[in-house]
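Q: Here's a chain of 192 amino acids. Please give me its 3D structure as tokens.
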Amino acid sequence: MEPLHDQPESWPVHEVEHIWEGHAPFSVRRDMISAPSAPGETFGRLVLDHPGAVVILAVDDEDRALVVQQYRHPVGARLVELPAGLLDEPGEDPRVAAERELREEGLVLADRWTHLMTTYASPGLSSERIAYYLAEGITPAPDRGGFEPEHEEADMTTMWVPVEELLRGVLAGRLADAPLVQAVMAYRLRRS
């Protein structure tokens, strides 16, 4: 028996309405689609077109993870998160983006990289795929590689926290950033 897996599939798109495009790296559209079993019945689905993102769980030799604390306006909170960022260029290698983001946000480099998983953030609405990486062999970076933090990132703080403390915070509901939760759980499962 074949292992359970997601299957590529595409339903017919009859019409596309571009709702919003701006300076952000994403756009919103409305697709009128039909199910293969009912080709005459169309219905609308909103799609947030997203370039994709990376999340980095950087773990040092003391089993501490690098976390950032950043204000997130939509949820009205300063969240504990992991270094992360968007794929800046179409077709950008997620691993290259992960290295860049770790340097920009954490001011550190890593010599060992492990792909933990790739997920869809919210597949009912968004095309965003997030690639998660474990970064080890951590050393200080000489600079941010030309990156200049602004807006919320200029107010972002970093700290090293034991992975077990993050896991306790996740399980107690004190830490709710989905990428942090997923990365910490995947790391813990790999280590058990």
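Q: Can you summarize the key feature?
A: The chain has a mean pLDDT of 94.
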